[in-house]
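Final paragraph of the annual report: two paired records, presented back to back.
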Amino acid sequence: MAKKKGVKPIAQNKKARHDYFIEESIECGIELKGTEVKSMRQGKVNLKESFAMVKNGEIFVQGMHISPYEHGNIFNTDPLRPKRLLLHKSEIRKLGSAVQRQGYALVPLDVYLKDGRMKLNLGLCVGKHLHDKRASTAERDVKREMARMVRTNNRSE
């Protein structure tokens, strides 16, 4: 069977985009078990409460829930087990120093299938304050209203 080319989105962390300013995003691989991959291909992943942390020169994702595979019997693993991310040492050092010194957080933004491999988009983020959230909500509402006005004007012409 030939490998599928292209990108297929699996899950997004919309809460992260609401709660954080995303300074930088990095694509990384995920170390998974076989039944976890099968479950992820079915879209049974939740990134809502997940975060990443640097431990002993490696980056692990905590709180990423992958539902057990239905046909997985004894090979299913704990849905919330920490998953190791695959990055170069230089990238891990850079992210680790940013998190320690400058108060950034590592947050998974989305998971997708790229050329047959599971990838995770990891964001280097700074937390938003309440007034920042209100401003981004107001900005989004203005954009939505402008798009609605453009649509109604194009229909009437």
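The closing record of the year follows.
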Amino acid sequence: MNFLEQIDLSNTPKHIAIIMDGNGRWAKKQGQERLVGHSFGVDSVRATVRAGKNLGAKYLTMYAFSTENWNRPQDEIEGLMNLLVRTIAGEVDELNATGVRLHSIGDTDGLPLDCQEELIHAIEATKHNTTINLIIALNYSSRWEITNAVKQMALDVQAGKLDPEAINDELISSKLNTAAFPDPELLIRTSGEHRLSNFLLWQCAYTEFYFTPVLWPDFREDDLYKAVLDYQSRERRFGMVSEQL
């Protein structure tokens, strides 16, 4: 069955966010160490970017490493960081060849120096690409992001630069890491879990959620197309009633 042919390409989400979950469980099922699952998950990222381009999506945000992930075993964290460096360094040519512009959100200053350097290089090397924006959430926490925005506004109020009455949704959004991007219309979480795990809490106020039991290393183009087909079956009312749409 060709799922892409069933999709109305005039009504696809322009921004899709993904919580890439299930790498460790996938590896365990294969009798491998958890890090092997993360390694195979890189292929799923490539497949998802290809599918996003086919759909005409302009933004893909992927949750790669949360602030809570630092609580994992040290050897897994070190392996993830090494994998991250190798992957970013090895993908720049392909990103440029396919028109993918790389961005990051999160507290990247908290990453190892070699990760920061490769990330900065990749972002700079792809900054002129216009086909699709790939936004990687690294050392990211939505509560951290919102807390920083509140602190910034509080300092501006204290300094007399901001009237508290001027604080509204738009101002708060402009202080977040995602200020340059639209809110996602669709959020996908793999592996059968049904929670946001501190990801884009503010930005997902009106996002449609799609949960799939597929483990992230098994996620491929058709899995994204199925999510979009499900998205297109829904009526997005934004607080209104059907008759107002």
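Residues 126 and 219 are 25 Å apart (CA to CA). This concludes the annual technical report; the extension proposal builds directly on these records.
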